[in-house]
Amino acid sequence: MQPSARRAWGLSTLAVVGACLAILLYRNDPTNPGSQWASCVFRDITGWYCIGCGMTRACYAMLHGHPLHAFAMNPLGVTLMPVAALSLAWWAGWQPRVFAPLMRVLNMPKLWMILLPAYWIARNLPWPPFHWLAPGGLNW
Q: Cβ distance 130 to 122 under 8 Å?
């Protein structure tokens, strides 16, 4: 199989799996008691929020057209959603020159090695403005 065909097959598979998960999430509220969606194991064990805590609820809110509620669940995750889409498109071969400087920055490991742990620590601090980073910390 040629690399372009393999990439197209991989992206198609990713799109189908993503669509199925989106449909499943759209129909099943993760905040309901007895929800089929698993809770965060890290939070259950430590009592602290991880980087991804609130993302299932944020995705549910986005699918239902509530971006502010989604942002309140995980501000960094929601902010990075368009970045993830752009990165996936870039990886798939859509590479406009206008995005090249941004992609160079996003591909720097140092950025993520600083941003993600800093966010992880900050969202567990109990005073403003840091506690607003916790899931549901912002009430709009």
A: yes
Residue 5 Cα to chain centre, angstroms? 28
Distance of alpha carbon 99 from alpha carbon 17, whole angstroms: 27
Domain boundaries, the chain: 22-27+36-133
Q: What is the pLDDT of residues 49-86, one digit of tens each?
A: 999 999 999 999 999 999 999 999 999 999 999 999 99
Residue with tokens 């995750």: 77
d(CA 137, CA 71): 10
pTM of this structure: 0.87
Q: What is the distance between the terminal CA atoms of the chain, rounded to a whole angstrom?
A: 50
Task: Round to whole Å and give the CA distance between 74 and 135.
Answer: 6
